[in-house]
Amino acid sequence: MRYVLQRLAFYLFTAWAAITINFFVPRLVPGDPVQALIAKNQGQIDTRSMHSLYVLFGLDKKQGLWDQYTAYLAQLSHGDLGVSFANFPTPVLDILKSSLPWTVGLAFCALLISFTTGTLLGVLMGWWRGSRLDSVLPVTTFISSIPPFWVGALMIAVLVAVGSSFPIGQGYDPGLVPGWDGAFIGSVVQHSLLPAAMLVVTSMSGWILSMRNMMVTVGSEDYITVAHAKGLRERRVMFSYAARNALLPNVSGFALAFGQIVGATFLVEIVFSYPGIGYQTMQAVGATDFPLLQGIFLVTTMFVLVANLLADVAYLFLDPRTRKEG
C-alpha cells in the first residue's frame, strides 16, 4: 500500500508540473493571440469586444499572473480547456472529444499487438536461442531503424492504388453514420490497417530484443534448473518460471512505450490523413491555435501518466518484492 501511495503522489506532482508548464508556455511566446484572431476574422469580430476576448481566453491584462493561474486551475477543475482560436467559438474539449478516440484507439491497439507479438517472439527466441527464429530479429531491427513516416509513405506508394482495400484519409468511408454496426466498424478497421501496421512493424523489434535478452539471463538461474530437475513440463518452465520473471522489465517499458507510440501516432496521422490528435495538432500549429495546443498537450500528458500508473500497479502484482514493507 505504501508503494502505491508513493507512486500516486509522484504522478500527482508530475501532473501539477505539466499543468503549470501548460499555463506558462503560451504566455512566454511572443505575439498577441487575440489581436491575431481579430486580424484573421476581419469584419466578423467587433474590436470593441476585445476585452471580453482577453477574459475568455484567460489573458486579461488587468489580472496578475497569479490570478490568471488560479483562474486557469479553477477552469480545469470544471473540465473547461478553453475556446479554440482557429475554430472560434468551438470549445477545445469538443474538438478533442471528436479526435481523441481515434488516436487512443489506434495507438493502444498498435502497442498491444506490438507488445504481445514481440514479447511472445522474444520468449521463444530466448528459450530456443540459436534456432531459425533468431533470423527474425535482424529483419525487425532493420525495419525499426527506418523513420516511421518514411515507412508510411512507402506503404502508400506500394499498397494504395485505385480499387485498393487499403484506403487512406478519414477514419471511415464517407456516407456512413458512426455507430456500433458491422458496416461502420468494418470501415474503421479497414481505414486503420495501414497506420496500425506501420506502428507495429516499427516498434516490435524493441520488445523482441529486450525479452530475448531477459530470457537468456533468466534461463541460467538456479530456480530454472530446479524446475527442470523436478520433471516439470518444458512449456510450464518456459512460461510460468522463465517468462514470468523475464517479463517485468517489459511491463515497465510498456507504459513508457505508450508515450512514444502516441508521439509516433501523431506523424502517422499526418501521413495517412487520419482524423486524430496528430492531425489536429498540425492544423493547430498552422493556425497558431494556442488553446487547442494546450489542450492536446495536457490530455496527452495525462494519458501517459495514467498508463505509467497502471503499469506500476501491474508491476506490484507481478513482483512480490514490491509488496514487502521495509
TrEMBL record:
Belongs to the binding-protein-dependent transport system permease family. Keywords: Membrane, Transmembrane, Transmembrane helix, Transport. This is ABC transporter permease. It comes from the Bacteria. PANTHER family: OLIGOPEPTIDE TRANSPORT SYSTEM PERMEASE PROTEIN. The chain crosses the membrane at residues 7-25, 102-128, 149-168, 188-209, 246-272, 292-318. It is found in: Cell membrane; Membrane. Residues 100-311 form the ABC transmembrane type-1 domain. The keyword Kinase does not apply. PROSITE patterns: ABC_TM1. InterPro entries: MetI-like, MetI-like_sf. It is a multi-pass membrane protein. Signal peptide: none annotated. Its main location: membrane. The keyword Membrane applies. Pfam families: BPD_transp_1.
